[in-house]
Please model this.
Amino acid sequence: MEIVEYRPRPDQLVYTFGGAEPVMRIKPGTALKLWSEDAFNNALTSVEDLSSEKVDLNFVNPQTGPFYVEGAEPGDTLALHIVELTPARSYGASATIPFFGGLTSTDRTAFLQDPLPDTTWIYHVDSTRSTVGFQARFGDFEVALPLEPMLGTVGVAPPGGEVRSSLVPERFGGNMDAPEVKAGTTVYLGVNQSGALFSIGDGHYRQGEGEACGTAVEGAMHSTILVELIKGGAPAWPRLESDGEWMAVGSSRPMEDSWRIGQVEMVRWFGELFGLHQMDAYQLLTQTAQAPIANAVDANYSVVVKARKSLFPKAAAYDGLHADLRRRSAELL
Amino acid sequence: MEIVEYRPRPDQLVYTFGGAEPVMRIKPGTALKLWSEDAFNNALTSVEDLSSEKVDLNFVNPQTGPFYVEGAEPGDTLALHIVELTPARSYGASATIPFFGGLTSTDRTAFLQDPLPDTTWIYHVDSTRSTVGFQARFGDFEVALPLEPMLGTVGVAPPGGEVRSSLVPERFGGNMDAPEVKAGTTVYLGVNQSGALFSIGDGHYRQGEGEACGTAVEGAMHSTILVELIKGGAPAWPRLESDGEWMAVGSSRPMEDSWRIGQVEMVRWFGELFGLHQMDAYQLLTQTAQAPIANAVDANYSVVVKARKSLFPKAAAYDGLHADLRRRSAELL
Amino acid sequence: MEIVEYRPRPDQLVYTFGGAEPVMRIKPGTALKLWSEDAFNNALTSVEDLSSEKVDLNFVNPQTGPFYVEGAEPGDTLALHIVELTPARSYGASATIPFFGGLTSTDRTAFLQDPLPDTTWIYHVDSTRSTVGFQARFGDFEVALPLEPMLGTVGVAPPGGEVRSSLVPERFGGNMDAPEVKAGTTVYLGVNQSGALFSIGDGHYRQGEGEACGTAVEGAMHSTILVELIKGGAPAWPRLESDGEWMAVGSSRPMEDSWRIGQVEMVRWFGELFGLHQMDAYQLLTQTAQAPIANAVDANYSVVVKARKSLFPKAAAYDGLHADLRRRSAELL
Amino acid sequence: MEIVEYRPRPDQLVYTFGGAEPVMRIKPGTALKLWSEDAFNNALTSVEDLSSEKVDLNFVNPQTGPFYVEGAEPGDTLALHIVELTPARSYGASATIPFFGGLTSTDRTAFLQDPLPDTTWIYHVDSTRSTVGFQARFGDFEVALPLEPMLGTVGVAPPGGEVRSSLVPERFGGNMDAPEVKAGTTVYLGVNQSGALFSIGDGHYRQGEGEACGTAVEGAMHSTILVELIKGGAPAWPRLESDGEWMAVGSSRPMEDSWRIGQVEMVRWFGELFGLHQMDAYQLLTQTAQAPIANAVDANYSVVVKARKSLFPKAAAYDGLHADLRRRSAELL
Model:
């Protein structure tokens, strides 16, 4: 297996999906060992650092990439298997950026009220106990929370020549902020441009569903990722697979549309997996799906629709690629 | 403990929250053993029964109740602890009612397209294996799914003299269609009218999150419920508590508003539980909450926002009432 | 023509559609001369009167009615022709009620921000110049605005035994807050309960589209209304007709659903008026409709979809009833 | 006055805002005489031409431009005064593209229903009578409708290096599909990139509000446009000015957010025009604004919030630039 390491210099960071030259070309089958900067470009290192002073929302979620995958053409399916995610710093940061987040008016849900206080929280990583520490800013409450690393962004170049901010989750993946994008998960993305041009970033040391305040425990990350290419078969929207679940992610507004997208994508997938008529897939998923909100705060809202494999007959998506990637990933750990 | 059994005659079924005379008065501390009719009034007993012919959407979700709880006044908190739920029939039914459900246009999301085929599925209960059987209608796929009984509706009379259809989830509870409303869960509802006037119904033998097609595996149900009253302290929106979780349910449109409601209610609850400032509660829940969609199909959409107790310091809501109800419920099983 | 005058005593005011005993029975063809209280129950008479202290949102929009229309049965169409609207007081009031309105978070769009300042504006009516006077509260700007009286609420009892707050616009009419509900307009409402049980209220001395802050220039009103009954033909959603326009009002959430409802209702109406296939009606209205937002602030948002008669061949809705009512109304002025 | 004519060759058409090299550099004060292709690239010239066969949604709304305006820098305000719009062909086309439009499910509002019939309508321009002719496709109804030319798209390059499809309306303008963008209107757009890089296209021979089916009477257009630059003062969202109205356009999802954006932008503008406190501007606009829906069908929904100048004291936006442009435009007619 070819193993490629890459750590971008600050001037190599990009802030969009699409629109950037690839940093390298890789072959399907390559294992990437990547470093990614945190969502704030490491601007928040103490509770004295205020996001309104140090963070420019046009330059957040710096991406590591994009990578050109040889042979990838529009209509193909890029498979990114996340082998391992490890914090690359001893602290993570979160903040309530003025007029950004889920429980505040924004530039879209535009009201006349004053913003919430611009507040920063710093979480210290305890790698022995595998925790990050929450400390109240308006009191003395403390609690250590389990470290659960995930990637907020993973995406390819969009279709139609569009270039989208790395704050955006969409059909091409992007800033889905889904806790399910973690070690052990394979992400399937439809390819829109030659080479796919995927990138990753926005590491979270942990995050609740919805990412209520708009920022997780943001931290630089070491990511090991296995890259594969499936010719053809591009899903309309991102699909995820873990040992236990098939999943699809819808990202749009209003949130019911995100759910509808994810649910319809799962109906299509169940048609492929089990040869089910769409009405039967609709019915079966009605009684079995899970539907957590991934983010309620980004340019689009993301909902993950999941089916637990244990409930259904055995079925292999993409000729069993996920299981194969799991086997291969064992060599890397 | 006083134990009261009640099975409504067909003419005693009600189809609203509010607007109906109580079927009986009960004291706080009473255990109720209730029977409830299925959402379709048992109109769908074979796949030949079509919902467009046999179901009138003005008369679905028949309620068992309402019950007048002595001493309950506006501003108080009704606690309903679900001790046990058991299917009362050997089959459940589900259907894709024309222009009703999550992946079809409706009277609200009004489009010009033709409806999806009016289709009925019948699920047989295997009580030995604790399963319900799915059988494809457009193919020969079959699978047995775990029985996971829950109540689609539990609610009190609304405020302001309103009377709402039993299809509606709202501030007063109602048709939340949340899988979390199952045995072992305590439901806290703010009281709006003297006596609270709560009712239950819409038993589901199982349901996925979102209840995509609009109908779960609908079935008549035996419910054992412990009723308690907390003077004062009415939550703004329904709260749930299980051994493992604190939860709040928001129900509105669009779906992001349902999430916002649930998330804000949890911020308030965390303020009560831990004395946290709202900004700290907002931050802490951002990193820890779960946020499954309960229904994406009803008059309002419902989202459950949850916090797993194991992540936080020990705290007792409502003076430990849930734990006390769990102890008392053991006597009933 | 039978002319009936009615001015409710304070204890006769009702705050719901449905759920109240009729104040009188009237025959189709009756002219009603009604007095209605303002939305705030006249609680705001000076800028010192704060809505947070004087207004209970469970008791706003007091209704004059309900009236039982003899012969009206479910499925029939109630026609209410507004002959004349005249301010019944020399002042109107508006206010930014905390957490109520279009540019503030609310109990639904629930955020953590502080409310906007609770502020009251009093508008003096100059009946000679037919104006109401705006006076800035945070500066010395003044401007006289044209008096344009309209009714914020007009509705019948809802279907399915529901009782809804007079703050709600819905399929049954209600708090649509549409400036088009003014003298010269006929309102067509589907009848849901015997007698229709309609009421009116929430007079506005004027209002912009959207009713941005949630309250118009609220004022007590003298209304002259001609009541007619069409057997059968109930529209699914409220329709309006003026000399120049056919209109339909959709009320739901999110706002695109309100628009969809209104647009589909107009497609249906154009099918009736011109025998058009729904695809042709869809196309023709695409190029001709107007679509102002009526309210963006109520329990449901309302959108009016309009077609200007002058663009189309002559057509008579409901056998020319509107023109007939216009003729009859001339006798009353 | 410098007058520049430009008609793009087919290979010079662009399909994005941002991401394309400017076709020329122009000085502020220039008058442009432009030709633009229709939204379908002239693919629909008979009712036999089906959009599903001839139209690729990645290549619609071809743009004429972008133009580099000398001296324009981020934070400046580009003023585009529309002097004249004239149909450049004798026919326009409209179509119900499968899964595109306002009364059908789409890739976002994703349902399982079949699409509406793919249908094309051709409108013949009668330049003598200034009409376009509607002919029913499913019957023999005909009607001539007034020609009311407008531009569906006018926009600058987006901020943050984004490149957006010419189907998108946003903060940078774009596919707002607002009937108000017609001869006599000045469009003010905040500049995001050096040179502004604006383009126009998507001419409509007429359109109803909402553009219900997703396509207006689409036609090639001759446009005369006066270009001016205001240093600084960039509005957050597009503003429009006509002799009779000040306007702002919000574009987002759900539609209430589009309205909120437009309304808040008008509050800001009224602060600038009259020195009003935001609470007074909020109140005054509540009683006076108009709020038509421009489109309910695009990637974002657009709402125009308007204030009629005749209601208010005289005030000059941007030092009276609109009036000045009107005077200058007289020389060109």
